[in-house]
Design brief:
alpha/beta, 7 helices, 39% helix, globular
Length: 265
């Protein structure tokens, strides 16, 4: 299978995005979603892999995934990265990014120079086969909404943040292919930043059409904007910091959108 094809979309999906935008259902999953090809997320899921599994993840990243990620960003997305100076002195953080492609997790890997990173995903992204193996090697943390699994997920977040490993969230909750505007945020990312007393590092991907663009399905160039980190406020409660981090992060995205595209939301 040519996995680079997963970076593309369809006219049907673009039409669904336009309808969802009109209806203001901004968190809707619009690409076809099926449990077929997904593995169940159970208490045995290796949120914190042992040394043997970690060794195989290392081999998969080293001998396949890193090369694929570099080629994807250089040849398909032609990724440009702005704001790398904002990574300085950030040991671990909750990173947020607009969810605009199936491969945007790999875009963040590339933009942050392959720093230690885990990626929060929906349960259905725990795929079988080679694709699933690569996603687990890249560090996905699938979220399942049950009491036992939420605790395991939360414990894993705490574990990694304490060990200088950042965790990537897509706070819009669903992927909208190459959608330019910020969408409303869900609370999860900001809750975990507040609870673990770590900053939120906002990343906002903007787009520039290629000179030879022929249709709206042509993949544009990706410009990854790494914005200044936003830190919890010492005297605020966890609930107050969740709200503060969410509002300030959304404001940062909106300001970057206005600056890059030269238009109001």
């Amino acid at each position: 299978m040519d996995y680079f094809l997963l970076a593309q979309s369809s006219q049907e999906t673009l039409d669904k995005i336009k309808i969802a935008e009109e209806n203001q259902t901004f968190n809707a999953h619009l690409d076809p979603i099926t449990s077929e090809g997904s593995l169940p997320v159970t208490e045995k899921y290796p949120y914190i892999p042992g040394p043997f599994r970690n060794f195989f993840y290392f081999l998969e990243r080293t001998f396949y995934l890193k090369a694929f990620t570099k080629k994807l960003n250089k040849k398909v997305f032609r990724t440009i990265v702005n704001g790398k100076e904002n990574l300085k002195d950030i040991d671990s953080a909750i990173i947020i990014c607009n969810h605009i492609n199936k491969f945007d997790g790999l875009v963040v890997n590339y933009a942050t120079d392959f720093r230690k990173l885990k990626i929060m995903t929906a349960e259905f992204n725990n795929r079988s086969g080679f694709l699933g193996a690569m996603m687990r090697a890249d560090g996905i943390l699938p979220f399942k909404n049950s009491k036992e699994m939420v605790k395991k997920f939360s414990d894993a977040i705490k574990y990694y943040l304490k060990r200088k490993t950042s965790v990537l969230f897509f706070p819009e909750g669903s992927e909208w292919w190459c959608y330019k505007k910020p969408r409303p945020f869900m609370d999860g990312a900001f809750h975990y930043a507040a609870v673990n007393n770590v900053p939120v590092l906002p990343i906002f991907i903007t787009f520039k059409d290629k000179e030879n663009k022929k249709s709206e399905l042509d993949i544009p160039d990706f410009i990854v904007n790494i914005l200044p980190a936003i830190f919890p406020v010492k005297d605020k409660t966890k609930a107050e910091n969740t709200k503060f981090l969410k509002e300030e992060s959304y404001k940062a995205w909106c300001n970057k959108y206005k600056e890059f595209y030269g238009k109001e939301l």
